[in-house]
Amino acid sequence: MADIRIEGLEGLQNLLDQFPARMEANVVRGGLRAAAKVIRDEARRRCPVGDPATLPKGHEPGALRDSIRVSVSSRHGKITASIKAGGKGNVYYAPMVEYGTARHLIKPKNRKSLFIAGLFKELVEHPGATKKPFMRPALDAKCSEAADAIATYIRKRLADLVGK
Q1: Which of 12, 46, 125, 141 is such that its CA lies 20 to 30 A from the CA of 5?
Q2: Do 93 and 64 meet the contact criterion of CB atoms below 8 Å apart?
Q3: What number is the average pLDDT over the span 50-77?
Q4: How many CB atoms lie within 10 A of CB 134?
């Protein structure tokens, strides 16, 4: 996970200190969400989509892309934005796509053999999968645009709040 740090925000902090803490947290939370959405959209654009003919039964093409989401949380005064892929339904394989897999053996868990391609096998050697990163390149490509999104959102919200 990468942290984006912006230096030189003392003036902004002084202005935010004039507002109630809850209002300040809402402005920061919204800014982080705006920045995370920029990176999420780029990750969705870069995400590989499987061919429907080669996908296992029960898997939909584009499911990994559609599982990329933004969440913003706040604990102990620290506000955090996360961009996550997978974990929804059948999309458990997001880390395998991002980082790839090594060669490995597949053994049956509850049976004596596996039934693959019309044959019964006691052991299958999987050749591994090449990595197809989409999350990290999205962060690298859109980092400055995300920082601009935070600044734009905070400027707009502060102008609205000061105007009230």
Answers
A1: 46
A2: yes
A3: 86
A4: 21
Burial of 79 (0-12, 13-18, 19+ CB in 10 A): middle
Which pLDDT score, from 0 to 100, does residue 114 have?
A: 84
Q: Cβ atoms within 10 A of the Cβ of 148, count?
A: 14
What pLDDT is stored for residue 143 in this prediction? 92
Long-range contact pairs involving 87-93 (C-beta distance under 8 Å, separation at least 24) = 89/63, 90/58, 90/59, 90/60, 90/63, 91/63, 91/64, 91/67, 93/64
- Tally of CB atoms within 10 A around 78: 7
CA–CA separation, 74 and 32 (whole Å): 11
